[in-house]
Amino acid sequence: xxxxxxxxxxxxxxxxxxxxxxxxxKKMGWMEKPVSEWSDLVMTNSVEFSxxxxxxxxxxxxxxxxxxxLAITCKHxxxxxxxxxxxxxxxxxxxxxxxxxxxxxxxxxISLGALLNENRNEETGDFNTLKSRDWLIFxxxxxxxxxxxxxxxxxxxxxxxxxxxxxxxxxxxxxxxxVKMQVYRNEGPYFYVNTLIxxxxxxxxxxxxxxxxxxxxxxxxxxxxxxxxxxxxxxxLFQQLDLNSFSH
Length: 248
Fold this sequence. Notes:
By secondary structure, this protein is mainly beta.
């Protein structure tokens, strides 16, 4: 039985450059171009279990750790899979495949490998418990046609301008939208932002990467609290992947 697509979750994110950061010295070349000319940076998720397929759920993207390319999306996507996963962060025996691809282009799909932060002892929880750890990290292969993001090693600062790159659930444009935001407050594992453009549809933007003005990854779109967007901070990646220390 094929379950109809379920509206994913929410919003948009934020981070920027500090004087000692590598991104302050070098802007990614694609950031100089309009979004319409960017190579594929963001994808959507399609997840298949033995009797259920979830399509068009949230956004996903690739990261370059310096030694590997990995795939990323939001952990709260597991809130849709409670029945299939026994309400824990593991894919279970009924899992068949997880693919990501640019929206509307399933012919360019990437099959994801092992879920690196799978944990049968970690309950899915709800948004308030997930926002400080709202990252899924997958092994991946065959990524030559896509642009992985480099991670900025310093946190965002209050007032910094950042951008969320992704599609809303109902958005059908070929390219994702670029949503400008401003950091309101940094809580360490996550941060709050104000969206600086009007008429942004928040539904389904979860999992979008949040980049700074130079194109470095500073967060992931997680959700919303009141009028503020909630973005997961990249400190989680540094901890999980044992990368160089993250400065708070």
